[in-house]
Specification:
The structure is a single chain. The chain is of the alpha/beta class. It folds into two domains: 86 residues, no CATH class; 109 residues, no CATH class. 45% of the residues lie in helices and 10% in strands. Strand 2 and strand 3 form a beta hairpin. The longest helix is centred in the middle third of the chain and has 15 residues. The radius of gyration is 22 Å and the shape is elongated.
């Protein structure tokens, strides 16, 4: 049986089914040892200790720390290696954070000043005048061998039912950036809310900045 525990939902996944296992009370100051013990005790209560195959978690140090992360401690309690399934949204956040660090973006608390200025001056931008990223020789070099395949994949993805509108906006902008035309035509939405913890908002703002 493949069983995945999520600290976010406090649930185990049995293939396509979910089983609610409990909500152990853990205070913010309890520490990772207490968190790991609470999960382990829940596993014991359900007689599932031997069935755990993977961990689902966000990518904060409190979960993934090499010595004191909750996943590390829980793995030690299980006395065997367990597959780590980091939340894909948090993984993308790590990737974008690395890009922002490399590009030396200035960050002030939860705000990104460059995004804030773009949001404040949006009304002054003529959205009919934009330059697709593919016009850059550097971008052309990166995508020269698979541009058509990527555009087809993006258009296929956007034709499906999407859980949120920002997913659709990111796909739209990606198509426009690569010189294509989205199924619904070319249009640009008003800049929305952003936060350092929202990787998709970062990607959307960055694409818009490049286009204008």
């Amino acid at each position: 049986v493949c069983l995945v525990y999520s600290w976010v939902t406090n649930r185990f996944r049995f293939f396509e089914c979910y089983q609610f296992t409990g909500v152990p009370e853990i205070t913010a100051a309890s520490g990772n040892e207490v968190s790991a013990s609470a999960v382990y005790n829940t596993l014991e209560d359900w007689n599932l200790v031997e069935n755990v195959q993977a961990f689902g978690f966000d990518t904060t140090a409190s979960k993934t720390g090499r010595l004191k992360g909750a996943c590390t401690i829980l793995e030690q309690k299980l006395e065997r290696d367990v597959l780590y399934f980091g939340c894909r949204h948090h993984v993308f956040e790590i990737v974008l954070a690395a890009v922002f660090t490399k590009c030396k973006f200035t960050v002030s608390g939860p705000d990104i000043p460059l995004f804030k200025r773009f949001q404040a001056n949006r009304s002054k931008i003529n959205t009919q005048h934009f330059i697709p990223g593919i016009n850059s020789t550097k971008v052309q070099e990166v995508f020269k061998n698979n541009l058509d395949d990527i555009l087809i994949s993006l258009k296929t993805a956007i034709s499906k039912k999407l859980p949120r509108e920002d997913h659709r906006e990111l796909l739209d902008l990606s198509i426009i950036y690569l010189g294509g035309v989205p199924p619904g035509g070319i249009h640009f939405r008003k800049p929305g809310a952003y936060h350092m913890a929202k990787w998709m908002a970062k990607a959307i703002y960055t694409l818009k900045l490049h286009l204008f």
